[in-house]
Amino acid sequence: MNLNQVLSQIASKGIRLSAEGEQLKIRAPKGKLTQQTRELIAQNKAELLRLLQNVSTTDSSEALSEPLKPYEETSPYPPLSVNEQSLWFVWYLDPDSYSYNVSFAGRMSEASNVSAWKEVFEHLLKRHPGLHSCFPSLDNKPYRQVLETPVLDFQVIDAISWSIKEVRQKVRAIHQEPFDLENGPLMRVRFFQQGTQGLTFIVSVHHIVCDGWSLNLMVEELPVIYHQLQTQQSTPLAPPSYSYPTFVHWQQELLESARGKQLWDYWQQKLEGNLPVLQLPTDYPRPPIQTYKGDSCVFSLSLELTQKLKKLADTRKVSLYTLLLAAYQVLLYRYTLQEDIIVGSPVTGRSRSEFNSIVGHFVNMLPMGSTIKGAGSFTELLTQVQQTVLEALDYQDFPLALMVERLHPQRDSSYSPIIQTTFVLQSFQQAHLLASGQDETSFSWGDLKFIPYNPVLFEGQSDLDLEMSEINSQLAGAFKYNTDLFEQSTIERMLSHFQTLLEGIVVDPQQLVSRLPLLTAAEQQKLLVDWNNTAVDYPYDKCIHQLFEEQVEQTPDAIAVVFEDEKLSYRELNSRANQLAHYLQSLGVKPEVLVGICVERSIEMVVGLLAILKAGGAYVPIDPGYPPQRLAYMLADSEVLVLLTTLAQMKLMPEHQAQLVCWEQDGEAISSQSLENPLSAVNHQNLAYVIYTSGSTGKPKGAMNTHGGICNRLLWMQDAFSLTSSDKILQKTPFSFDVSVWE
Q1: Residue 69: DSSP 8-state
Q2: N or C: which end of the chain has fewer CB within 10 A?
């Protein structure tokens, strides 16, 4: 739980804390300081002391000494609290949305009196006026209306023949039914009679009249009322001393006071400038208008890891909440590489203990901002987060909705202003509400045995929410996410990364934030081993022209090359290349001998390249468009034995040492050569080509490649892209660039 929840829980027992130097003084009514409460105070002692020391004498005396007077609303149009107004307008814009429904569901595994439960909820409804309120409007301005005669929306459904899956589907459907805020009712109760399987129920309430604390309060009171009715006890629960309008009145006075100005000044200074927008990598494009469809992935940490996290928090003198918040911010930083991260963290909004027994919307969301440096250690970040938390709690009474209204942040309809993600560590009383996924985990609920069922709650204000709690001494949680942004598998990976991150933090909290582990062992195996296990037994003793000759044997009459209106089959192309290869061999071409080729893009270019390779030589492509100086340099530097060209290109050639072979002039001699494949001593280790670089960093340099290297690349490409006889490859790249080889 966060520090605010600790304080509220302590205050609800009538316990008062004060700081005297480094000592924490406790004043408690007799019997209220239980061992559990002592442990709670001890676990949070350091931050409680620091918070009390930070609060001014005036503020603390006002908060602890001045009693709050109950406020009786006399206006026919009672106003709403700031955050209630915000929720009302969200509903008004989208009345069919269920994103602000709050539900509690589960199955009682033993016999329970259904008719008695209706009376229980009637008592609950009368006890808390907020639950039988509605919010009509006058001139588009909402006001509160408490119905004089409470109307309970209660139904019992015969589900004896239903499967557990069918019941759960119906429970979820009920959770997703929208509420009518203007007319009410704003609470619905459904019971499913399942015979020997027990009794499943869901209580669904709109968030405008019920926050998390209120839901917990209802969960605590329901079995007490049930027991009283079953045992015919005449002593009911003491009615709350205060009503929600008292809070509304108190909030208005606070915001208009000098303290209210202090609160605003603090948040204005904290949130000035361009606020960061969390840029999590999403699976789907972000919708232009924010949506609220959601789901959740649940998890639990081992008892060992939970204990190590608690020990680390104790060693660093921070609360477990602060430690987990810092860890979550690291996770977000590692996913986004954004150094400025804002995480919303809810506080109960009940800074006065008088409000603790009221069902209503008190919760406030505080923007917890951190600047995260990858080169900084986790402990350094932890110190920063602790200071942020303590300050934020000291100024927690300023509503988020009012921050948005006054700051005028840059608005975008695709995401929420200021806060796009939230984190909460629930108090232990609320832990069972997060028991999603633990389908048969039974809890004591008063005198009853109760198996919770969370109908995948998602309130929808954020892209991503992390809720954690402690169940049976182990930390558990749920990542709640927007399904229009993320796939379930992505959130499951994120969940695994968060657990790995926590394990790395407890091993060495001094590690740099950028070096903390994130990948699971399975992911490391995949990235470092499986995906790098790419060895393939390609034929290592083959040359390029030999692969071509094998294809000639397989498809001799298939078209091999097309240039304008001219076509050659594999047999024709092979025959013409063979004749030229025999001729080149007669001129001394053999392995490691370089042959220059300077021709325009044409059938002759392809024939020439194949012929040089078949003769055993390596080709040096020379672009006829090169400047004369570059042509001269390449011919001299490569020391080609033969230069293969055409009449048109011969005129452009500078003086050179090579033997000249011209297609037109030597055509008759070439055509008299054998059509058979020539023999040569060339092997896969011999050169296939020398291609000159552009020379942008100096003189052009000849880059060499062997038959084996090119064959390896070509065979891999065939495996990867699986070209078939129906595919056509455009030879678009000038043959003086290496990309042309693959084409």
Answers
A1: P
A2: C
Q: Is the dihedral of CA 460, 463, 469, 472 positive or negative?
A: positive
Q: How confident is the model at residue 460 (pLDDT cuts 50, 70, 90)?
A: low
Q: Residue 683 corresponds to which tokens in the numbers above?
A: 């092997």
Asked whether 500 and 514 are in contact (CB, 8 A), the reply is no
* Same domain for 251 and 235: no
407 φ, ψ (degrees, to nearest 5): -75, -25
CATH code at 655? 3.40.50.12780
Same-domain pairing of 34 and 132: no
Segment 224-260, tens digit of pLDDT: 898 888 888 776 687 888 999 999 999 999 999 999 9
Same domain flag for 513 and 614: no
* 180 and 307 assigned to the same domain: no
- For residue 645, being part of any structural domain is answered with yes
Q: What pLDDT does residue 22 have?
A: 64
Same domain, 264 and 400: yes
SS3 183: coil
| Beta strands at 187-193 and 153-158: parallel, antiparallel or unpaired | parallel
Averaged pLDDT for residues 720-730: 86
Instruction: Give phi and psi for 695, each to the nearest 5.
Output: 80, 20
> Are residue 50 and residue 103 in the same domain, yes or no?
no
Give the Cα separation of 91 and 107 in Å (integer): 30
Distance of CA 728 to the CA centre of its chain: 42
Question: Is residue 102 exposed (0-12), middle (13-18) or buried (19+ Cβ within 10 Å)?
Answer: buried
